[in-house]
Structures are given as C-alpha cells and as structure tokens.
Description:
Ribosomal Protein S5, domain 2; 5-stranded mixed beta sheet; globular; rRNA processing; EC 2.7.7.56; nucleotidyltransferase
Amino acid sequence: MRPSGRNPADLRPVTIETGIIKHAAGSCMIRCGDTHVLCTASIEPRVPPFLKGSGLGWVTAEYGMLPAATNTRNRREAQAGKQSGRTQEIQRLIGRALRACVDRVALGERQITVDCDVIQADGGTRCASITGGWVALRLAVDALLKTGDIRTDPLVDHVAAVSCGIYGGVPVLDLDYAEDSEAGTDANFVMTGRGGLVEVQGSAEGAPFSRDELNTLIDLAEGGIRELVAAQKGCLA
C-alpha cells in the first residue's frame, strides 16, 4: 500500500489554474497533490548574445523554492550569494524540456523566460514546474499571436513531466515525498503530447533495477503524461 493509498498507476490530484499573475504574459498555479508551483512567463525583445542576429528565439527558465516550501525553512539563495547546484540543474532541465516543443524560427528573435517558484513541496517539484511551465509558455505565445507580433504558432506540441519509481518493490507513478525518500529507484520522465521522450533521469538508490522494471516505469510515465496533457488542455479550454 502506498502511503497516500493510491494505486501504483495513480497520479496525485492535479489542478492547473491560469491567470494568476496580472503582469505576466502567461501564468498558472499547478497543484500536484501537496506540491504547488507558481509558473509565469515573461517576454523580452532580446536574445542571449550568442543568438543575436540569428533570427532564432530562445526559451529559458528559472526555478526556486520559497523558504517555507518544506517543513524546515530553506534559506533564500540570494542570501547565500549563489544558486545551489540543485537549483541550476533543475532550471536547465526545465529550459531544455520547454525548448523541445518550440520552433525557434517561428518564435523570432525574442526570449521567453519561464519562472517556476515552488510555493509548497511534497516531491516532484521539477516535474510540476515543467508541466505548469508549458501552460505559462502557451499563454505567453497566445499573447504574441493575438497582438500579431508572430504569425505562426511556434509551439509544436505539449510537454509534460512525471516521476516514477520503485517503492516497496513495486513500480509506482508520481512519487510524493514519503515515497521519494524511501524509493529503491527514482526516475523523472519528460515527454511530449505525442509520446516522444524528451529527457529521462533515473537512478537506483540501492539495488540496481532491471530492463523490465525500466520498461514498466516508462509505461507508467506514458499513462501519467497523457493525464497531465489532458489537464493542460482542460485549463486552456
């Protein structure tokens, strides 16, 4: 039995609420169980120096956790004067994941920055950030299309992410913190709406896992991604 009482292939309850931040080009609050992430997208008429004059757009991301997001206060990274390695790794992952769905020629020479702020953490914050970040990006792109700043939709597909793992010897979908902290295997899957794999992060925390177990985790992830994409579509309808 999972601590939450869920079946192995069950996601936590997922809700996505749009239009949270007045001044953002796109924004949403995604709630995956007790993990809550505020995602905003901002448009800037510039690109990084290495893309200047290329005609290509850029999508990047920043990620952070509020001090009270977990049961012990996290010191603000600004106070330390630098970002942790974990933060840098996660925001690079979010940026890579979102760029996988973008036609950067159609976006034009502009940058969209997706900010993901974890309000409350109970496992899977990077996955929730990617899933909610895509919604914020979608809304920002819709704003560009509405004003006529771009003529062709640069988003070629949905992107979402979900965790899977082996808990108590059983492959399960969408680990919360109680499971993540005890899992024998922990993996994150980033996938497109059409089922293409964007990125897979997986590791054995104890005994190695088998190819058959990996295949089972992929199957679980595919089912979870279908549900998350449906949630994305539902909040935008």
